[in-house]
Amino acid sequence: MLSKTLSALTLALLACACSPETPPESAPAADSKQASAPAPRNLKVGIFFLEGSLDPKNMFDAWVLMRVGAGEALLRLNDNGTLEPWLCQSYRVVDPLNYELTLKPNLTFSDGTPLTATAVKNSLERVYALNPRAKQYFTLDHITVNDELRLTITTKEPVPELFYNLCEPLFSIIKLPENNTGNWPDETITLPITTGPYQVTAFTPNQSVTVQANPHYRTPEKLISEIEFMYQPEEQARTMALQSGEVALIPTVNNSTLPLFTDKPDFTVLRRISPRTNVVYINHQNELLARHSVRQALDLALNRAQIVSLIGGSPAASLIAPELVQGFAPESKCDPEQARTILDEAGIIDHNGDGTRDCNGQELSFNYYFKSDHGSADSALIAQCLQQDWAPLGVNLNLYPAENLAAIMASGDFDFFSANDSTLPTGDPYVFMRDRFHQDGDANFGHYHNATLEDLLATMAQTFDAKERQQLTQKLLTELKADVGAFFINHIEINEVARKELKDLHLYSFDYYFINDQVRYE
Fold first, then answer.
1. 3-state SS assignment for residue 289
2. What is the H or E stretch that residue 201 is in?
3. Are 392 and 419 in contact (CB under 8 A)?
4. Domains in the chain, ordered, with CATH?
5. pLDDT tens digits, residue range 472-502?
């Protein structure tokens, strides 16, 4: 029944799909006449992620702070993943344990107070003390204020990718009392004072964020006077709000919905391949899945082209999109016949004639958990496609939508689970690959272990040369692909859809950037 349903859905989606196009990176710019128009009106935006605070100390809450145009970090990434100064004007490695940054002069917080090295030190020390995610990126020893604009971060071990890691939104700089250092109370700051083009003026947890133009911003002219970000986790609710005019901008529209807006006079559609990849993680403690032959056969039976026809993006032959790894462009391969041969030669056949292969009395019947992720319902389609692809192979897949997927992952009570992962969260792959695929990784819920890969990670942890790190990344990806450490489904094409009145909108590769000081609403 699922196979017939999926086939019907596939035909319906393909019938309405638009032809491939080169995704624009920016919305049309305002012309010179528009540049002299009256002050911009207020803007409403639908967003898919909002939680209980905007405080960088709380897990991923700073992602929202940065997306709404309020939070800024010391450094940032361009669309190619190259490091660029943001609040700092220069940075250098003093030695493998000391990293110096110099702030741009004359910067202020939204309340007009100067941005100083002491203020940055306070902000970084607080988030490091209170947000458990910070320790995934480096082991802080101490921070030294050299003068009003210079500070040095000292780590307990070498961190070659430290400057990249400082791009993570959790390291957004917020103003804190200078006389309360070293013993930060675990208090949540409701309306953080930040440095971005917009300042937070109202926040209702799990409902909305309102920002207004920061009068002290370095380029304050013609900022939108007020923007309200409305929490709309369901894609259908966001698209309906955009169609009705309730909001003028939304991120993450399903591939099947995009034709409603593409080439329509009232809307602008921005699309691009991102550092995000849909990954199906494997429980390597399952005796059957611990066999390389089984993982290899399942990987070969995946029809990624069909999945991409449904949800967009590009087939994933490795963890990271080749656009973001120089000189690395593997091919994805679908070969069900070879998959059958591999299992047959391994003696994994249907011994009892019930239609499912078995090995030593264990049937190849697995439990797959999934949930909507990152504002998209793609995970359900991926699960159904895998079930359909593996059934002819003699493999049974039981699908389980999970409301609390995190608990299932942590418990280890799964065979597969899927995730929409930013595989280059800070432009450098080391932290992500260590956490997901090192046997001691905090997020290695499938208990994957590969000695060759771990040796490469150990080398990368001591390598500062950018070219050498690129080469190590290629070796890591090659090893992970050959060993089938997980199933990489597709490199995700992110998108934003806006009403035509919105000008100079930019779709960033790294999706914690969203609203900037250039966007206009006229």
1. coil
2. strand 198-204
3. no
4. 43-193 (3.40.190.10), 273-494 (3.10.105.10)
5. 999 999 999 999 999 999 999 999 999 999 9
